[in-house]
Amino acid sequence: MLPYPDIDPVAFSLGPVQVHWYGLAYLAGLAFAWWFGVQRSKRPDVPLQRAQVDDLVFYSALGVVLGGRIGYAIFYGGERLLENPLWLFRLWEGGMSFHGGLLGVVVAIFWFTRRRDLPFGPVLDLVALMAPVGLALGRLANFIGQELWGRPTDVPWAMVFPADPLQLARHPSQLYQFALEGVLLFLILLWFSSRPRPTWSIAGLFGVGYGCLRFIAEFFREPDAHIGIQAFGWMTRGQLLCLPMIAAGLFLLWWAYRNAATTAKRGAR
């Protein structure tokens, strides 16, 4: 068993204001997204000008925060939301959902492209590339904050989290998700986008890749105590939410390559 590196979730304090690692992870993820977007905007296949990247990151951040909170309230806190609708605005109590944040980002990007008269598909592909690093940093922040830990296990790298009231040796599932949904997914998408691909295909691969990798990681992550196992005696809420995401990603990949083939045939006539 490995000792848990007990890191203070508060990175530093400015007088009465405490700055948490989770907040810094969000900022670092957005900073990377901005830098990556600036670099990609130099490519001829990216329909964004340098100045528009700033607005894209702002809209995406808005979608993450609003969608993540609303999604958490609906997907994971439905009963609390019905009992007290104002609980939705108690951000200090925590609670963000990736799947809700994803939907929020898609809506925000659609709004952004409509207002700027930009094509939705290529911009969505770009954002799919910008996202995994932020996801990776968020999982590291989960690890530091001792939240979303794993299921009990006896593997040699198991850890006992000081905040765990049961003091059980558990999978450091936050690190699994950091490696799978963050690092590995980014490398796959970076490799896939290293050559020209049909519009929508990068977003489609993101959906399939994240959905499958998150589905795997959920086998090691402790289910939410107030929800537990959802279906078939083993499927969690997170896995259920991944299924439509995988299906949507497969559809986008099919749609992208179908359209590319149709365009190629027309051009050959």
Structural class: mainly alpha
Write down the Rg.
20 Å
Q: Distance between the terminal alpha carbons, to the nearest Å?
A: 65 Å
Largest β sheet strand count, sense and barrel closure? 2 strands, antiparallel
Overall pLDDT level: 89
EC number: 2.5.1.145
GO molecular function: phosphatidylglycerol-prolipoprotein diacylglyceryl transferase activity
Protein name: Phosphatidylglycerol--prolipoprotein diacylglyceryl transferase
GO cellular component, one term: plasma membrane
Describe the structure.
This protein is 61% helix and 5% strand. With 269 residues, it is mostly helical. It has one domain. The chain has a two-stranded antiparallel sheet with strand order 1-2. A hairpin with a 2-residue loop joins β1 and β2. α1 crosses α2 (50-75), α5 (120-144) runs parallel beside α7 (201-217) and α6 packs antiparallel against α7 (201-217).
Question: How does the SSE layout of this entry go?
Answer:
Blueprint: E1 10-14, E2 17-20, H1 21-40, H2 50-75, H3 78-83, H4 98-116, H5 120-144, E3 159-160, E4 169-170, H6 173-192, H7 201-217, H8 237-268
Antiparallel strand pairs: 1-2, 3-4
Pathway: Protein modification; lipoprotein biosynthesis (diacylglyceryl transfer)
Main location: membrane
GO molecular function: phosphatidylglycerol-prolipoprotein diacylglyceryl transferase activity
